[in-house]
Design a protein that fits this description.
601 residues, alpha+beta, Heat Shock Protein 90, five-stranded antiparallel sheet, 49% helix, flat, transmembrane, phosphoprotein, HAMP domain-containing protein
Length: 601
């Protein structure tokens, strides 16, 4: 009997028994403690979540209330503006389109600051008391897509107000054509400082006015929020309705927090009302989704008990090898580095001498890895740059040689017209291959314009008339390359875009005196009978906003021509525009009249 027990005792040492006993006790204590903690936590969790969610919705509603109140003040700036009220009241009955356009331009200037302060405003429509309608804003054209009955009903609702806002949510049936824009319509009476009503204003807001604030409520998938106006009408739904029935405020729970069960699922409702604009926010969130995350505590308790059992078994072994383990890690790391694995790092567990060696080893491998990466990256970049340079040299010459082949092909077939077009295109390609900073003569520049117009005439044989009138003595003037062609090309791209017939383009040149002691001007005028431009478009061309250049292609358009003249010749010279919408455009280039050779730009 004793002989049979000895092997058993040898197998189960005291340390093993101690580890098993402590681990078992740790598991039991952890399970009991975890279960009690989970129950207590679940109760406290629901109370804390309700309180925090209520505070969150209160803060969001306060921010939204402040922003909507800002919209009130911004539109007050328009309605109380004396110049606006005077301009609207001075309109005649059934004013013509020109008078309305002048007033809309005036109001657009007054609304410049409004567009900066309230980007959520997409457009404004003003009805004066004489049945005139004025549209303002970049997206005011969306008013035309709304049903007139819907707009008339909105205007009718304003008659019963005293100047406060009236809101309306747009539905799919309120549009003449399908419109995916998320918009909300608001209206108010326009009153002067003396409280005299002189018009009605409809404002088209983007739903980002509400979305930017209410999106923070979307803490779970099964979360919904509804925003109602002072009259209890639904203005915005966080997740959209998607064909669902429009909810009624009367069917919602009262103010504060309330847990209500719907279709077997418990929802926490929160209802609050804003102080300034009177909006009511009703939000709901599924308690099941919130409580599902609280089960992590129970899982952690079970997992920690299992980890404790394993940990107790290896503590003794770890203690015996604790001092030598950092050195062993360092030796294994050095073996990995010798094999070429420079991303190897050793874990530092102490701050003694071995820890200092481990930190130095990590710094060394990180530095080597960085140097190798930089070297590989430099080699790859050099190869890519070399390939791009070779490709940049081969592609243009390949195209030029191919055009020459097409020329002889058409010439041998007797198609001289197509051969001339190929010749024009080939000469233009050859001209553009020259460095853009190299100076040329006006004669060469006009020759390229002739080539470009020959191609355009082949494209529009019966609808294009082009005339070039430049005295012979001016053709030897020195100019930089690609001076006129971008402006002529813009005439075909923009001015003639909607013109199908009777396209007329004229290029003239003359020398203008600049007074005693000053060199004369070389003046080139390019005019067309296209769509024309507004003064705002001209200002945008002359004073463009800053845009970084694309590394792949440098622009040589109209803006580049203006910039190059300014940099090369100075402020005395430049580009002038004369244009009226629908009447065509005249572009005037004022350059120095130089006949002698000049250095490259």
């Amino acid at each position: 009997m004793n002989n049979r027990r000895r092997p058993f005792k040898k197998i189960f040492k005291f340390s093993t028994k101690l580890i098993i006993a402590l681990s078992t006790a740790n598991i039991l204590i952890s399970c009991i403690t975890g279960l009690i903690t989970y129950r207590i936590h679940l109760s406290l969790f629901n109370e804390e979540i309700s309180r925090q969610y209520y505070m969150t919705t209160d803060q969001i509603l306060a921010q939204l209330d402040s922003r909507v109140n800002d919209m009130y003040r911004i539109t007050d700036y328009i309605t109380l503006n004396p110049s606006v009220s005077q301009a609207v009241m001075e309109q005649n009955e059934q004013s013509n389109s020109y008078e309305r356009m002048k007033l809309e331009q005036l109001l657009d200037k007054e609304m410049y600051q409004v567009r900066l302060d309230a980007p959520e405003i997409m457009g404004i429509r003003i009805y004066d008391l004489k049945e005139n309608i004025f549209n303002l804003g970049s997206f005011s054209g969306r008013f035309y897509n709304l049903e007139s009955a819907y707009l008339d009903d909105m205007v009718l609702r304003l008659k019963e107000t005293g100047g406060e806002y009236v809101w309306s949510r747009t539905a799919e049936g309120d549009f003449q054509q399908r419109d995916d824009a998320n918009v909300v319509l608001a209206g108010r009476l326009m009153r002067s400082i003396n409280l005299d009503t002189y018009g009605r204003m409809l404002i088209l807001f983007n739903t980002s006015l509400f979305e930017s604030h209410l999106k923070d409520l979307r803490i779970h998938e099964d979360t919904e929020a509804y925003l109602f106006d002072e009259e209890g009408r639904l203005l915005y739904s966080l997740n959209g309705l998607d064909g669902q029935e429009v909810p009624e405020l009367a069917n919602m729970p009262g103010m504060g927090n309330l847990v209500r069960e719907e279709q077997g699922v418990s929802y926490m409702y929160t209802r609050q009302q804003s102080e300034k604009v009177g909006f009511t926010l009703v939000s709901k969130v599924s308690l099941a989704q919130i409580q599902s995350k609280s089960t992590v505590i129970l899982q952690v308790a079970v997992a920690s008990a299992l980890v404790s059992l394993v940990s107790l078994g290896i503590i003794i072994a770890l203690i015996s090898r604790m001092l030598l383990r950092p050195l062993g890690n360092l030796v294994r790391g050095m073996k990995h580095v010798r094999e070429g694995k420079f991303d190897t790092r050793v874990q530092i567990r102490s701050k003694d001498e071995l820890g200092y060696l481990g930190e130095s080893f990590n710094n060394m491998t990180a530095h080597i890895e960085t140097l190798i990466y930089e070297m590989y990256e430099r080699k790859i970049n050099e190869k890519e740059a070399e390939l791009k340079a070779i490709q940049a040299q081969l592609n243009p010459h390949f195209l030029y040689n191919t055009l020459g082949m097409f020329f002889w092909k058409f010439y041998m077939l007797g198609d001289e017209k197509s051969a001339r077009l190929i010749t024009s295109l080939s000469e233009m390609l050859q001209y553009t291959l020259e460095p853009v900073q190299q100076m040329t003569t006006l004669r060469d520049e006009i020759r390229q314009i002739h080539n470009y117009l020959e191609i355009q005439k082949a494209r529009y044989p019966d609808s294009l008339t082009a005339e070039i009138d430049i005295p012979e003595e001016m053709l030897d003037c020195r100019v930089f390359r690609l001076l006129i062609q971008p402006i002529v090309e813009n005439a075909f791209i923009h001015a003639f875009r909607n013109k199908k017939t009777d396209r007329r383009l004229q290029i003239t040149g003359y020398v203008q005196s600049a007074g005693e002691g000053s060199a004369p001007f070389l003046v080139l005028e390019i005019s067309d009978n296209g769509s024309g431009m507004t003064q705002e478009m001209i200002d945008r061309i002359l004073n463009p906003p800053y845009e970084p250049l694309n590394d792949k292609r440098k622009s040589i358009g109209t803006i580049s021509v203006i910039r190059r003249i300014e940099l090369v010749y100075g402020a005395t010279y430049g580009v002038e525009f004369e244009s009226e919408p629908g009447e065509g455009t005249l572009v005037r280039l004022k350059l120095p009249c130089r006949l002698q050779e000049s250095e490259d730009i």
